[in-house]
Amino acid sequence: MRRRSLLLAAVPAGLVTLAGCDSDSLDPNSPEASPSPSASATPPPKIVDGPLPAITEGRKFGEKPTVAKGPGTPSKNLAVRTVIAGGGRTVAENEFIRADYLGQIWETGKVFDNSYDRKRPLVMQLAQGSIIDGWRYALQGKKTGSRVEIAVPPAWGYGASGNPQAGIKGTDTLVFVIDLLESFNSGSSAKGTPVPQTDAALPEVGTGTDGKAPKVTVPKTDPPKKLVSEYVLEGDGPALKADQTVLCQFQGLVWDGGKTFERTYGSGRLSQFSLKQMREVVKGLAQGLTGKKVGSRVLIVVPPELAYGDNPPGGGAIKKGSTLVFTVDILAAM
């Protein structure tokens, strides 16, 4: 598309995120905040087996672990150990992961962050500039369902400046225990249960789960006057809250003529955006997603007053008074 995307902004390897994603939704102590700079020409770290501290409690996958202080002097290299080997799909660089984690300082054993207590796993892209390099290199090639313990020296963590807000000095080696729950790439789809589509006055949406764009057949009738949000595939994950950020596949069409104005399906990209900010872009899309379950495909029909009204973006298929049709595969949320 020639015009600037309304919902998408380029990030590494063609995966995408909403422009201006709400940084307030990210925990400042978690490993995606203030990643250390890394030039593309910098060689990857040497990965070694240890030393690594013992996990003394919470040894099962998904349990909050308790980790001993680091034994002696940490390695200057990136130490990685698979504690529990999972049997899921292999994670590749630039894919998104959903993971629970605990992070602590090697020397003191002080825990500076964990997602287990928040009950909101981290959803983040394993891409340069999105997450600290220690995670990026340590998790490539690991399988979902695995528990991985890593020790990250400053060069592959927060660098010489550390992370003062988290109490991390520029000389601190960091220890993480990471439970890899899921991973997502541009071929991911919702995997929910098909829901009968019985209303002939609404668009019919395909139920394929191969990562390709589902076919949308818009009826040749007047659009509904009110917002419509219906399951096409109903997942079994938690319901989206209005303050969350969603990772998804989506497509947007104009009701009149059924022309697609934007999509991620088949493009080598995903979309990640905050529902809070989406209310300022396409209010009806944010409203239609709120309360829907993760793992679902949702049909959302947005009347003009909850979309662009009489102020459509220039140069595209959306005109004054356009009703918009969206299909959204909700892959994950945080």
- CATH secondary-structure class of the largest domain: Alpha Beta
Strand content: 25-35%
Radius of gyration: 22 Å
Task: Determine the CATH topology of the largest domain.
Answer: Chitinase A, domain 3
Number of helices: 3
The overall strand count is 20
Order of helices and strands: EEEEEEEEEHEEEEEEEEEHHEE
Instruction: Give the domain tally.
Output: 2
- Average pLDDT metric: 89
Helix content: under 10%
Query: Which segments are poorly predicted (pLDDT under 50) over 5 or more consecutive residues?
Result: 1-28, 33-39
Largest sheet: 7 strands, mixed
Secondary-structure content class: mainly beta
Please give the CATH architecture of the largest domain.
Roll
How far do the termini sit from each other? 29 Å
Shape: elongated
